[in-house]
Structures are given as structure tokens and as C-alpha cells.
Amino acid sequence: MNPAIREFDGTALHAALNQKRQAEGLSWTGAAAAIWEMAGVLNADRDARGVANHPISPSTLQSLHKRGDTSCQHALFFLRWLDRTPESFLRERQLPCNRRVEIGAVGAAPALHAFTSLGAQN
């Protein structure tokens, strides 16, 4: 059996964000604020510890469709706001993956060697 990797579809994520934003009558700035406010407890804790917060920028949301991808940190915020799973944004097209992973015995050094070769991603 040949394992396959399904790609995350950042363009579909942007479309879902845009659809919800429009349905709620929000600008991109308003959507960014709504997404950021969902993490109020975490943000307050970080503020109390003097750790800098980096709110979601409207440009991060707007440029998602151009890039087609996002960081995992941003994706978690976006998925939570959309109430969707990461799997709901996986493309149907599957990429072949030839991957061999060797895991050594406990205490062996080095313990993990991974070799990955991905097929063409057209």
C-alpha cells in the first residue's frame, strides 16, 4: 500500500473565513478582532506575565488567499473561529509519499532517522 499525503488548502480556509466574515457583517479588521478576542483568557494571562501579544492582523487574513498557506498558530485561531477541523480543509488530491522512518531502540543514539521523498507537487 502506498501512503499518501493530502495537502492543506489555505485558499479554501480563506474562502471560509471570508464567508463567515461577510455573514457576520464584519470588515477584515473586525474579523481579526473577533478571532483575537476568542483567546481572551490566554491573552490576559500573557499580559499579566509581561509577555508580548501579537494580535491577528487583518492583512494576515486578507493575504491568505494569495499565499495559500498559513502558520499552524494562525490556523488554530482561524479554525476555532470557524468551528471547523483541520481535516475539513484537506484537498482531495493526494500526493504520493515514499517515506522510510527508522526508530532506534530506547537509549540508542541517534534514535530517529527519517528519509522523505515527495513526488511532484503540481
In round numbers, the mean pLDDT is 76
CATH architecture: Orthogonal Bundle
The portion of residues assigned to helices is 40-55%
CATH class categorisation: Mainly Alpha
Derived from helix and strand composition plus strand pairing, the structural class reads alpha+beta
Largest sheet: 3 strands, antiparallel
| Inertia-based shape | globular
Order the strands across the largest sheet as they lie in space.
1-2-3
Termini separation: 22 Å
What is the count of helical runs?
6
Cα Rg? 19 Å
* Unreliable sequence segments: 106-122
Assembly status: single chain
Question: Can you summarize this structure?
Answer:
The protein has 122 residues and is α+β, with helices and mostly antiparallel strands. A three-stranded antiparallel sheet has the order 1-2-3, with no helix packed on it. Helix content is 43%, strand content 21%.
Ordered list of secondary-structure elements with their pairings:
Blueprint: E1 4-8, H1 10-23, H2 28-37, H3 40-48, H4 58-62, H5 64-67, H6 72-82, E2 90-103, E3 112-118
Antiparallel strand pairs: 1-2, 2-3
Task: Characterize the structure shown.
The chain is α+β, with helices and mostly antiparallel strands and 122 residues long. The chain has a single domain (4-91), classed as 434 Repressor (Amino-terminal Domain) (Orthogonal Bundle). The protein is 43% helix and 21% strand. It is built from 6 helices and 3 strands, in the order E-H-H-H-H-H-H-E-E. It has helices spanning 10-23, 28-37, 40-48, 58-62, 64-67, 72-82, and strands spanning 4-8, 90-103, 112-118. Strands 1-2-3 form a 3-stranded antiparallel β-sheet, with no helix packed on it. Strand 2 (90-103) and strand 3 form a beta hairpin.
